[in-house]
Amino acid sequence: MSAAVDGELSEREQQDFDQHITWCVSCAREYQESKKTKHLIREKVVRFKAPESLVNSILKLTDSPS
Amino acid sequence: MVRPVHKFHASCDGHSAQAIQLPSVLSDMTSHNKEEQQISPEEAQKQRDFQEEAIQHINALYNYALHLTMNPDDAHDLVQETYLKAYKFFDSFEKGTNCKAWLFKILKNNYINKFRKNAREPGKVDYDQIKDFYHSIKDAQSDSEDLNAGYMKSLMHDEVYQALHGLPEEFREVIELCDIEGFTYEEIANMVESPIGTVRSRLFRGRKLLREKLDAFARKYGYGTEE
């Protein structure tokens, strides 16, 4: 199920999976719910920007390697 | 020792959460390089390549470091050390492979060497500490967007964050690496040093737990869970 949600199935597995969820209601539902959860995490988790001081210090470090 | 990761394949395409805007200081790099008279042309080329390939992942690395250390100062140090090591070993990075995955692996190794001995036990998350940490910086920095419909839209960043951070560490890590950072199972397996089957089952169980928590939030605040 995870592999289906993440697009990690092989072509053959994907075909089998697609076929399975056309008649298996519980798997079809589970699949939809899992996709929703994945999407939610992607969109809602707060991402922080690296502090500018950190970016600057790294640029400096790589500009004049010791 | 940092091991180069050669088996990663390019999959750098990110999603919206990774659409990072780097500070304008980056655009000044080239001119800055020209001022460095002492360095060899090879070294200058290496610097340009490194800055082009590696620096763009700094926000993702910083978030991963925050996730691991739960402490902005430690995250700062960890990212800095990671870039130092990455630069030192940049010759071993195979061009065309996934630079972001390579950097994440270096960061994770660095973290294990540096912090793991004193770190909290996996699964025992100090929720109060997380909440305090979160509230201390959430107002200042955020680059995510609201795009969802239905009950998802009603769920706040805060609640999703709480639900995610309430998960046992081993589940949370793979979910973040997969859903937020967009790594493949193979790349994640390499980072967490577990078989792909383990990654897959952690994702499945983690998402299930997460959904239960989110549904509980939705019910608590009276949102329908059906769209």
Your description of this structure?
- The complex is a heterodimer of chains A (66) and B (227).
- Chain A is mostly helical.
- Chain A is 74% helix and 0% strand.
- Chain A has helices spanning 2-5, 11-23, 25-44, 52-63.
- The mean pLDDT of chain A is 86.
- Chain A has one domain (2-63).
- Chain B is mainly α and 227 residues long.
- Chain B folds into two domains: 1-119, Rna Polymerase Sigma Factor, Chain: A (Orthogonal Bundle); 120-227, Arc Repressor Mutant, subunit A (Orthogonal Bundle), CATH 1.10.10.
- Helix content of chain B is 60%, strand content 0%.
- Chain B is built from eleven helices and no strands.
- Chain B has helices at 29-35, 41-53, 58-69, 72-88, 99-115, 127-137, 150-154, 157-165, 169-180, 185-192, 196-220.
- In chain B, helix 5 (99-115) runs parallel beside helix 10 (185-192) and helix 9 (169-180) packs across helix 11.
- Residues 1-36, 120-125 and 135-154 of chain B have low confidence and may be disordered.
- The interface between A and B is large, with 37 and 65 residues.
> What is the number of strand segments of chain A?
0
Major beta sheet of chain A, specifics? none
The residue fraction in helices of chain A comes out at: over 70%
Distance between the termini of chain B: 50 Å
Largest interface: which pair?
A-B, 37 and 65 residues
Mean pLDDT of chain B: 72
Q: How many structurally independent domains of chain A?
A: 1
Per the principal axes of the C-alpha atoms, what is the gross shape of chain B?
elongated
Based on the coordinates given, report the CATH architecture of the largest domain in chain B.
Orthogonal Bundle
Unreliable segments of 5+ consecutive residues of chain B: 1-36, 120-125, 135-154
Q: How many β-strand stretches of chain B?
A: 0
Which CATH C-level class of the largest domain in chain B is it?
Answer: Mainly Alpha
H/E element order of chain A: HHHH
Derived structural class of chain B: mainly alpha
Radius of gyration over C-alpha positions of chain A, nearest whole angstrom: 21 Å
Mean pLDDT rating of chain A: 86
Bin the helical content of chain B: 55-70%
